[in-house]
Design goal:
heterodimer, A: alpha/beta, Rossmann fold, 4-stranded antiparallel beta sheet, 9 helices, 10 strands, 23% strand, globular, B: mainly alpha, ABC transporter involved in vitamin B12 uptake, BtuC, two-stranded antiparallel sheet, 12 helices, 4 strands
Chain lengths: 274, 315
């Protein structure tokens, strides 16, 4: 087993290439994630942090560079092909689950991620019992609502189930795209707790985008600060040193001065992070 | 009585059309106009084979496969060539009109002299159950053939509806439903959404072609115009079924498509008996579908209009 779960080589994505409105969303990003590590990506709007995640998941076509998962090059793989190796939780709780299908049916679909889908009954009695047990681990009482259409559940409940779906077949890489941003504070806290325990239990390699400095310093073993499509800061081995939100704010201030950001952008940064 | 048996038989035949439209309209939430073409393909292919003395079973199977192929082509237009669902359906069914003409060799083929599933069922009924050539029920005389047809079509519709309901609970069936309900979610659990659309439309149009093939055999002829309005008829079946059985579970929903088709046919037969000009049937069907689709929205808008927000707009 290779020690590197994800490797990016000079990954680039340019919007409107060759026109005056050209934007380098990703500018030759090199990155290696070691197996079993938790990496947090921070950055202002438009810094390229979402593009980075989408380049890994395959929902954003690259204009240059290569992507490797588990040492295998996946640059030309489709999104659903890469999903065999990648678990994902999206910002919008509605994206990660099929609203009209029941809780059990959604979970059964996720349980076959990477497997063959043919004419086998998806929800036999044994399968239901196993799913009940898995859902009970969330501690939300959802094991009694297996036949409820998942669209009737709250955002927090759906997000917790999406997290379960992303990890029930152990992924090579777990991608979390601001997955608590659309939740109320209590649900967000609950989902973060579940995230932590899932990652610890499975020793999962995780890449998480967040807007929350608090989450970043609390969870991240490694923090990447994106700026203008590049990794501006790569803070490593954070387990052994206490990093505070103030430290991160200073980094952002430094980026701002280096860049001579205009006032409104600076104000936006403050609004978002302070 | 004869009228009722005929209407019910037709209802079971068109229930398969309803099941096909259920897949495209309710699973994938798209109006697939390929239906009009594939209903005609089913009728054309089976007629062309039967007049050449091909056995009715393989003839019906080949007609069904032709529909599967039509659906797969339409699905490929959508997914590989990024054509809109509407255009893909219109293109495929328009092209199929010519194909059907080539297959039949003319605009009309009579099957009265040919062996068909209907004559086969009649013979089977006589041999196995001693079904007489005619019998009297409740004071009216029915032909043995019409009873055999009713039983055959009811078994086919019921059996295929059951199979479809079971299919929806398999790994592949669930994957299809997820692909229709939420494509990003489906991709995130490694489902190939494009493939699911091609398979789904193939399945849908296979059922519709089978419906067309049975319709031609029951009617005793195939006509180039047969497929026109198939999609709307299928929608009407679905809507009657949803009104009667609701959509609480996928099994009920599918059963509704069958029940709805039969009830709708009985209603139509009653209306014709009461003096409705048969030429107006398609107009009435279209108006019915329009009413079912539009009235709830109009009612909602009317309710919203009485609220504080909409109050000013009537000033």
């Amino acid at each position: 087993m290779p020690e590197i779960a994800l490797r990016l080589e000079a990954v680039s994505h340019v919007f409107h290439q060759g026109t005056p409105s050209e934007v380098r969303a990703l500018d030759a990003v090199d990155l290696e994630l070691e197996r079993g590590t938790f990496t947090v990506v921070l950055g202002a709007n438009g810094s390229g942090k979402s593009s980075l995640l989408n380049a890994v998941s395959g929902s954003l076509a690259l204009t240059g560079g290569r992507v490797y998962l588990d040492g295998r090059e996946v640059t030309r793989w489709t999104e659903q092909g890469r999903a065999r190796l990648i678990g994902r939780v999206f910002q919008n709780p509605f994206t990660g689950t099929a609203a009209d299908l029941s809780v059990a049916e959604n979970l059964a679909l996720a349980a076959r991620r990477g497997g063959r889908r043919w004419l086998r009954r998806a929800l036999g009695r044994d399968k239901r019992r196993a799913l009940r047990k898995t859902v009970a681990t969330l501690g939300m009482g959802l094991e009694d609502r297996l036949d409820t259409p998942i669209g009737l559940l709250s955002g927090g409940q759906r997000q917790a189930l999406t997290l379960l779906m992303a990890t029930m077949v152990r992924p090579t890489l777990l991608l979390l795209d601001e997955h608590t941003a659309a939740l109320d504070p209590r649900s967000a806290e609950q989902v973060i707790r579940l995230t932590q325990s899932a990652i610890t239990a499975g020793a999962l390699t995780t890449l998480m985008v967040t807007h929350s400095m608090a989450e970043a310093v609390e969870l991240g073993q490694r923090i990447l600060v994106m700026h203008r499509g590049r990794v501006a800061y790569d803070l490593r081995d954070l387990r052994h040193q206490r990093l505070t939100e103030d430290d991160l704010l200073q980094l952002f201030d430094r980026l701002r001065w280096a860049d001579r950001l205009d006032g409104p952008t600076a104000a936006m940064l403050r609004r978002t992070y302070v | 009585m004869n009228l009722l048996v005929g209407a019910a038989t037709l209802g079971f035949i068109l229930a398969l059309l309803g099941l096909g439209v259920f897949i495209s309209y309710r699973i994938y939430d798209t109006l697939d106009l390929t239906a009009d073409g594939s209903f005609g393909v089913g009728a054309a292919v089976v007629a062309a084979l039967l007049v050449r003395d091909v056995h009715p079973l393989p003839a019906t199977a080949i007609a069904t496969l032709a529909g599967v192929l039509a659906g797969a082509i339409s699905g490929t237009l959508r997914t590989r060539f990024l054509v809109s669902a509407l255009l893909a359906g219109v293109l495929t069914s328009t092209a199929l009109y010519s194909v059907n003409l080539f297959v039949m060799g003319s605009g009309n083929l009579s099957l009265t002299a040919a062996e068909s599933l209907v004559t086969l069922a009649e013979g089977l009924g006589q041999r196995l159950f001693g079904l007489p050539a005619s019998l009297t029920v409740l004071g009216t005389t029915l032909s043995g053939g019409s009873i055999a047809s009713l039983v055959l079509m009811a078994l086919l519709a019921g059996g295929l509806a059951l199979l479809l309901a079971l299919f929806m609970g398999t790994d592949l069936g669930l994957a299809m439903r997820a692909a229709g309900n939420n494509p990003p979610m489906a991709r995130a659990v490694a489902i190939d959404v494009d493939r699911m659309i091609v398979i789904g439309l193939g399945l849908s149009n296979g059922l519709i072609a089978l419906s067309g093939a049975l319709f031609a055999q029951y009617s005793g002829y195939s006509n180039i115009q047969m497929g026109i309005g198939a999609l709307v008829t299928g929608l009407a079946n679905l809507m009657v079924g949803e009104a009667l059985l609701g959509r609480r579970s996928i099994g009920r929903w599918i059963a509704g498509a069958v029940v709805g088709a039969v009830v709708f046919r009985l209603l139509v037969a009653g209306a014709v008996r009461a003096g409705l000009n048969p030429s107006a049937l398609k107009l009435v069907t279209a108006l019915f579908v329009l009413a079912v689709l539009v009235l709830p929205q109009l009612a909602r808008r009317a309710r919203a209009g009485r609220g504080p927000k909409g109050a000013g707009s009537h000033a």
